[in-house]
Amino acid sequence: MTRRNRRKVHQELRLRAEAHKAQLRARREAKRRREEALQSAIHKALRRRTPKRRSPQGQVPVALTTSVDQLLALANVSPYLRGRVRRVLRAVVSEIPAMAASSSLPWLLLLSMQPWVRPPERFTAPSGSTRAKRDALARHLLVRFRVPPFLLSALDFEPLAVARVPLEDAWGVEILATLGRGASLRSLVGTPTLPAPLTRRMCHLLQTATADQSVIGALRHAQVVGFGGPKQLARMLLATRLGTPRGSDPRIGEAFWHRIIGWLAVRPEVAELRLDELRRVLGWFESQQRKGMQKGVPIRLTGRTPASVVRAANAWWDQTRQTSDEAFPRSGLLPLSNSPQARAQGNGSATESRGIPDLTFRMVEVSSEAELRAAADVMRNCAFSYRKLLRKGKVALFVLHRGERPVAMIEVSLGAMAVVQAKQPCNRTCSSQQLAAVRRWAVHNRLLVKL
After folding, report:
1. Which of 101, 118, 162, 315 is 20–30 Å from 423 (CA)?
2. Domain of residue 403, residue span
3. pLDDT tens digits for 55-64?
4. Are the beta carbons of 90 and 83 closer than 8 angstroms?
5. Residue 330 CA to chain centroid, in angstroms?
6. How many domains does the chain have?
7. pTM here?
8. How far is CA 77 from CA 229, 230, 272, 397, 420, in A?
């Protein structure tokens, strides 16, 4: 075969081989595309959800609507807030039926008190547990931007079917809603929302808290560690009166307790105290601060040692303890009879010496479960259902006496440092004299009045 013919044969073979390779490549590409289309169809089918049968708007059970409306009326909730609660309740009945109960009213109020970034009517619950659905509803209503996951624990509430607005838990939800709208945590420091004067390091520790921490737990951890103290002290503080926020008053609120935490954190001996000793120490600090405020001289921390503070706290405890079965932590609020305004009303011993009964008002704190049951029986109200909140130190209950006769029961939200309820027996409205005594006592203890 001539050279020219051999060239033609080689060229033809090469073209055939290239065509064969191109055909193989085309087959592989077609197979790959078919597999990708199949996988895409499978994923799309798995993601597709069966549309839920929504309850029509307004189809809330009549019994539930009646119960919620009665509780909101007893709590003196404004008509605007009542309308928002009903809108959230309709979404809950449709998407989270496990939480459609009157005992969930505190949670509904917490969600309704903050501005919404999306309407509740557009909420669709994801699959998962009731808690996951609850958190999803909170994100839908309050969160537009990313927030630390631990803030969702602000919605952990005590299921109580009682007529009260949970102001002691509103601060955590307000932080969640404010950060969810795009604000920075640093911008909240020093405001009524976050009154503790946190440093930049403490803000960083707070933002990086783990998801299993509560809001108050993350705050105390950031304060103690930010001051250089041990984590054990932060855990111990949660079992004391600092397990709840202490309000925004600069003299007895979070700013004052921030100083106390700084004093405790830099002293290693404090972490070795027993829990009951630490509770007494904190109670003594608050008592000394409140008494010093009457004279215009706040407590001084310089020069004090842990040993001297423990001795003073034990002596104070022996003087102030009333009974041995005090199941509820003491609030630290001063009694009405010790205020200068109450003494100006009249001297009880002088009136008794003239044969006239003592009709001055005095405030008595409910400190045990037995006292709570007795007070609830006398007042004929549902105060005994507050025992869980009292054990956790979220609220404090007081009985207003005129002379020796109990005339009203007072509820103080310790997280907001505010008087939130004042009712006579059978939940009747207090008289003007009784309200004046309550307001005088609130001013004496630097409490807000939000009746």
Report:
1. 101
2. 336-449
3. 444 478 888 8
4. no
5. 20
6. 3
7. 0.78
8. 43, 43, 46, 21, 12
